[in-house]
Every structure is written in structure tokens, then in C-alpha cells.
UniProtKB/TrEMBL annotation:
This is Nucleobase-ascorbate transporter 2-like. Belongs to the nucleobase:cation symporter-2 (NCS2) (TC 2.A.40) family. It is a multi-pass membrane protein. It is found in: Membrane. It comes from Panicum miliaceum. The chain crosses the membrane at residues 34-55, 93-109, 153-174, 181-199, 211-230, 360-382, 388-407, 419-438, 458-477. Keywords: Membrane, Transmembrane, Transmembrane helix.
Length: 524
């Protein structure tokens, strides 16, 4: 056998991923764009329904309160997504509800002054107002870090070696929302997982009128088929004698969203009443805002790669964080019950469909706003069993993790220094949050349990986030360990030109503001 040539063994680094027909500033035909946008809307429903389903009952709210919170969260998600895609990073990202805020929000819910309120609905309203106040105050952190360019300055410490583990942990760190949830109703979740993989990957070349419909619209097709299959199981009495947990995860009629939803309801600011402010609760919420900032930074890096755009320069990254801070402010004003971050699953869908168009995401924001006002119709789609979403997450979160690992192609992975940084940061990024999770499940409180509640929220929130732990470890090691003459190994020759807006001529094409606003807000 002839000896293999070097070019046959290795693959040269590539700035753009292969196989994408539409990138950030190219648009599919309107018909395709609308269906693709509807897929992003459907996918965003998973988080928009799940977070209120967990928090609202703890706050004392009933099904009607839960529906209104879901509507509000979806409405503000649409507004924030539009603002971010128009004036923020301009990347095709959905800005949805964040699980990072759950720990400080639960601390507010368990506040003795609120927990002692006997009437459930009154306790819900008072708790929601306290959450609103904490979100409004803490949103100033992202607004300040973003618009002052401080986060952009800090991002200059990033390199491909430091960011690869962080972006990878964005996907790997969400494994608890993948197959562990599928396993709660395996007869629905497993068929969804298998069907989605088969249609989107093995049959992706099936075309109708030169359109690869199974590759681009597999999510919509799979959810429709498996949802109908789950409805047949429910109507046929398959779960009549099942446990309560099985019925909640498998049945299509247990959400109680459709019956509780109004036909038309437009969310508006301060709809729950005037927010209340508490210094300790606000300080605790700041930890979630910082986690949201880090997770969103990693998401923007992944989304840029999946949209065939250059990595967002420091100025653009800061601009996006500033607008995300405004998004959290809107969360507080409207009362969504949680803060905002970039939706990781929607970033993964860019890779699954191989469509990174900004216009698609903007149309999906329109769907979110429209269906959040038409309560019954929005509740119909929101009643999809969460197990179906979890099956899709198994694929999409894995895609995002792989995008993070793809940054390593620009580095020297024959360097023991780089292997140490990547390996240790990924391992600790998974291991530390898992310790915090298991400790919390066993003790019903986090490992940090001092008399200072805000300090507990800080520690328990920050170290429960895999990307945050990964960033702390990776960036510290990358900037302190054998840095002399390590620039080439770290991938800086490729990375450094994207730090400034004028470092690459393509940045203007991808990130310039619309309506010629760059005349008034010139990028640095």
C-alpha cells in the first residue's frame, strides 16, 4: 500500500463550516424562511413553558397564572430577539428564558416574608414583584459592562484554546436536559430522537423541487408525527393506570394550558403590580446575570460559526451584552419570572438545518409575539410534551458542543500545555457543577449555606454553570501558564484580527447596524 500523503492525513483549518447554503446575511425564499422560522418558534417553546411550570407553582400561582407567565415570557423573548438581531450582535440568535436565574429566584420564593403569605394568589403576586425588582436592579450589570466596553476589553484575554472548552461546555453541560428527560417517557422520547436523526442526517438528501425538505424541516415534521403518536397513546388509554410522573411526562392533555389560556391577552409592563426592591435579593440576582453574560458570550461565538460569520469583535460582543442587559430589564418590567440569555437549542438548530440566516430568526420573533397574544393558539403548541423537546436537545446540544471543539483546529493540539488546559477545563466544567447539583438534591440547599443569603446565591449559581466554571479555569490557565512564545500554539495569529471591528473587512458586512446607524454609533 502506498504511503499516505500529509494532505490526506490532516485537514487544513477552515474559517467557515461546509454545507451552509444561507449564511447570516443571505436569505432563503420567503416560503422556506417562514417554515424555518416556525421551527425556531416551536423549539423556543420548550424553555418558555418549562421554567414557569417549575417556578409558578412554587410561587403559589395556579394554572391561569402559569399561562400568563408563559405568554409574557414568550412575548418578551420575541421583543428581545428582534432587538438583538437588529441592534445587538446582529447574529441569528433567539434570546429566551434562562435556567441560570432559577437558584436566586428560588431563594426569593423561599424568603420567609413571602412564604408566610397564606393566600396563594397573593403570594404569587408579591413574589413576582420581588423577582421583578431584583431583575431590574441586576440588569444594570450587563448594561454597564456592555455599553462601557468593559466586557469587550476583558474578551481580549480570550483565545481559541480558552474559548473552545467554554463553548463545548455550553452543550455538554446541558446533558441533564437530554436523555435523562427522554427516559421519563421513553416510548415517546426515543422514537422522536431516532426519527429526528434519521430524517435530518440519513435522509437529508431527499429533495422536492431542489429543496432538501427533510434536512431543513425535519424538526417540524418529527414533532408533528410524534405529537400525533403521543396523542393516540393518550386517547387510547395507554397511561390510564400509570404513575403521576409518567402521566405528566407522556400525556398530551396534562399541561392544562389550553383550558386556562385566554383567547386574546397582550402582556404589558407592570402587569403584576409595582416591583418591590430588596438589596440582598438584588445582589443574589447579579450572580445569575454574570452567568447569563458568560453563557451568552459562548453562544455568540458558536452562532457566528454556524452562521458563517467572523467571530464577533470585542465592540460587537459588548454591544450585544448591553442589549441583553436591556432585555433583562424588560424581563423585570413585564414580569417574565426569569431573566434572559441566548437559547442554546436554537443555536444548535442553525447547524441542524444548515441555515444561518438572520431573517429567519427575525420572522420567528414575530411568531413569538403574535402567538403570545393569541392565548389559545399559543397554548396549543405549548402543550407539546417536554419529552419531545428533550429528544431534540440530545442532538442540538451535541452540535453546539462540537462547534466549540472545532475551534481547536486553529491551535496546536500536539502541545501538552494546550492538552492540559482543554482537558482540565472541560473536566472541571462538568465535575464541579455536578457536585453542586448532587449536593443540592441531597441536602435541599447548595454547598454554600452561610448566613449571607446573597453570598450563597453567588457561589451556588456561578459554580452550577458548566460554561462559567470552564471559562474561569480555561481563561486563567491560558493567560498564566507558559504564555511566553505560546501565541502560535494558542491560535492567536488567526484569532487576533477579529478583536477589532476593522481587523477584518467582512465584519462590516456581518455586523454593521441597519438603517445606516453606524454613522451615529461608529464601531471601535
Amino acid at each position: 500500500m502506498a504511503e499516505a500523503k500529509p494532505e490526506e492525513i490532516s485537514h487544513p483549518p477552515m474559517e467557515q463550516l461546509q454545507g451552509f447554503e444561507y449564511c447570516i446575511d443571505s436569505n432563503p425564499p420567503w416560503g422556506e424562511a417562514i417554515i424555518l422560522a416556525f421551527q425556531h418558534y416551536i423549539l423556543a417553546l420548550g424553555t418558555a413553558v418549562m421554567i414557569p411550570a417549575v417556578l409558578v407553582p412554587m410561587m403559589g400561582g395556579d394554572d391561569g397564572d402559569r399561562v400568563r407567565v408563559v405568554q409574557t415570557l414568550l412575548f418578551v423573548t420575541g421583543i428581545n430577539t428582534l432587538l438583538q438581531s437588529l441592534f445587538g450582535t446582529r447574529l441569528p440568535t433567539v434570546i429566551g428564558g434562562s435556567y441560570a436565574f432559577v437558584i436566586p429566584i428560588v431563594a426569593i420564593i423561599q424568603d420567609p416574608s413571602l412564604a408566610a403569605i397564606p393566600d396563594g394568589h397573593e403570594r404569587f403576586l408579591e413574589t413576582m414583584r420581588a423577582i421583578q425588582g431584583a431583575l431590574i436592579v441586576s440588569s444594570s450589570i450587563q448594561i454597564i459592562l456592555g455599553y462601557s466596553q468593559l466586557w469587550g476589553i476583558f474578551s481580549r484575554f480570550f483565545s481559541p484554546v480558552g474559548m473552545a472548552p467554554v463553548v463545548a461546555l455550553l452543550g455538554f453541560g446541558l446533558f441533564e436536559r437530554g436523555f435523562p428527560v427522554v427516559g421519563r417517557c421513553v416510548e415517546v422520547g426515543l422514537p422522536m430522537l431516532i426519527l429526528f436523526v434519521v430524517l435530518s442526517q440519513y435522509l437529508k438528501n431527499v429533495q422536492i423541487k431542489d429543496i432538501p425538505i427533510l434536512e431543513r424541516f425535519s424538526l417540524f415534521i418529527c414533532i408533528a408525527l410524534v405529537w400525533a403518536y403521543a396523542q393516540i397513546l393518550t386517547s387510547g388509554g395507554a397511561y390510564k393506570n400509570s404513575t403521576e410522573v409518567t402521566q405528566i411526562n407522556c400525556r398530551t392533555d396534562r399541561a392544562n394550558l389550553i383550558s386556562s389560556a385566554p383567547w386574546i391577552k397582550i402582556p404589558y409592563p407592570l402587569q403584576w403590580g409595582a416591583p418591590t426592591f430588596n438589596a440582598g435579593q438584588s445582589f443574589g440576582m447579579v450572580s445569575a446575570v454574570l452567568v447569563s453574560l458568560i453563557e451568552s458570550t459562548a453562544s455568540y461565538k458558536a452562532a457566528a460559526r454556524l452562521a458563517s460569520a467572523t467571530p464577533p469583535p470585542a465592540h460587537i460582543l459588548s454591544r450585544g451584552i448591553g442589549w441583553q442587559g436591556i432585555g433583562i430589564l424588560l424581563d423585570g418590567l413585564f414580569g417574565t419570572g426569569t431573566g434572559s440569555t441566548v437559547s442554546v437549542e436554537n443555536v444548535g438548530l442553525l447547524g441542524s438545518t444548515r441555515i444561518g440566516s438572520r431573517r429567519v430568526i427575525q420572522i420567528s420573533a414575530g411568531f413569538m409575539i403574535f402567538f403570545s397574544m393569541l392565548g389559545k393558539f399559543g397554548a396549543l403548541f405549548a402543550s407539546i410534551p417536554f419529552t419531545i423537546f428533550a429528544a431534540v436537545y440530545c442532538v442540538l446540544f451535541g452540535l453546539v458542543a462540537a462547534v466549540g471543539l472545532s475551534f481547536l483546529q486553529f491551535t496546536n493540539m500536539n502541545s501538552m500545555r494546550n492538552l492540559f488546559i482543554v482537558g482540565v477545563s472541560i473536566f472541571l466544567g462538568l465535575s464541579v457543577p455536578e457536585y453542586f447539583f448532587r449536593y443540592t438534591m441531597a441536602a435541599q440547599r447548595g454547598p454554600a449555606h452561610t448566613k449571607a443569603g446573597w453570598f450563597n446565591d453567588y457561589i451556588n449559581t456561578i459554580f452550577s454553570s458548566p460554561p462559567t466554571v470552564g471559562l474561569i479555569v480555561a481563561v486563567f490557565l491560558d493567560n498564566t501558564l507558559e504564555t511566553k512564545d505560546a501565541g502560535n500554539d494558542r491560535g492567536l495569529p488567526w484569532w487576533v484580527r477579529f478583536r477589532s471591528f476593522k481587523g477584518d473587512s467582512r465584519n462590516e458586512e456581518f455586523y454593521s447596524l441597519p438603517f445606516n446607524l453606524n454613522r451615529f454609533f461608529p464601531p471601535a
